[in-house]
Design a protein that fits this description.
The structure is a single chain. The chain has 210 residues and is an alpha/beta fold. The chain has a single domain (2-51, 87-209), classed as 3-Layer(aba) Sandwich (Rossmann fold). The protein has helices at residues 28-37, 132-138, 151-164, 185-195, 203-208, and strands at 2-8, 43-49, 70-73, 76-79, 104-109, 141-149, 168-177, 199-201. It has a six-stranded parallel β-sheet. Strands 3-4 form a two-stranded antiparallel ribbon. Helix 1 links the parallel strand 1 and strand 2 (43-49). Helix 3 (151-164) runs parallel beside helix 4. It binds pyrazine-2-carboxylic acid and zinc ion. Pyrazine-2-carboxylic acid binds at residues 9, 14, 49, 81, 149-150, 153-154.
């Protein structure tokens, strides 16, 4: 069975000192690097949050709103974030300690200012595809391993979409970290991923049975 490692949004803005810093987010980097170096994956795929400056998921683009407020954006509930991952800025770059190797594929998301895209597969209205599922199908990949940031947003939605699309989906628990706007959001995200057919495992379990 062909396997892909999906590295979700390991970008400067989600890492230490970034605009939307995920607590201990940097700790995923050595774990992901080890998985990549193990050479057990047929494909390495990275998703990249890639927003225009006027993106409506930014609190700064709304009057009288602050970070973490919730609004309805074109009919969809939207958390308002600090400005982050603006196209071609340093914050949008992959962290420089992340070692994706020399053969990896990038899928960018969140380009449309009117809609957010937490999942690496679809925008939040579940209509526009990033091209990731077509890519996986074309290359006959059946099993995807999900890593990266953040457990309670982009990791969760990417994993659930992967499972719904029929891929065998495994979430590497020590290779993800959450935003946790509310304390147990990451725990709830793991439960939700399980409920949707994702398997949760550790990087050790993957590397030991090599
Ligand atoms: C993410 C919030 C906003 C993520 C992206 O990568 O989890 N979270 N944009
Ligand atoms: Zn974003």
């Amino acid at each position: 069975m062909k396997k892909a490692l999906i590295v979700v949004d390991v970008q400067n803005d989600f890492c230490e000192g970034g605009a939307l810093e995920v607590k201990n987010g940097n700790e995923v980097i050595p774990v992901i690097n080890k998985l990549i170096e193990s050479n057990i994956f047929d494909f390495i795929i990275a998703t990249q949050d890639w927003h225009p400056r006027n993106h409506k998921s930014f609190a700064s683009n709304h009057k009288n709103k602050k970070v973490y407020d919730e609004i309805k954006l074109n009919g969809i509930t939207q958390v308002l974030w600090p400005d982050h991952c603006i196209q071609r800025t340093k914050g949008a770059k992959f962290h420089n300690e992340l070692n994706l190797g020399n053969n990896y594929f990038v899928f960018k998301k969140g380009k449309n200012p009117e809609i957010d895209s937490y999942s690496g597969f679809y925008e939040n209205d579940h209509k526009t595809s990033t091209g990731l599922k077509e890519f996986l199908r074309k290359h006959k990949i059946e099993e995807v391993y999900i890593t990266g940031l953040a457990t309670d947003y982009c990791v969760k939605f990417t994993a659930i979409d992967a499972a719904k699309e029929g891929f065998k989906t495994l979430v590497v628990k020590d290779a993800v970290r959450g935003v946790n706007i509310t304390k147990n959001d990451s725990q709830l995200a793991f439960e939700e991923m399980k409920k949707n057919g994702c398997k949760i495992l550790s990087s050790k379990q993957i590397l030991n049975k090599k």
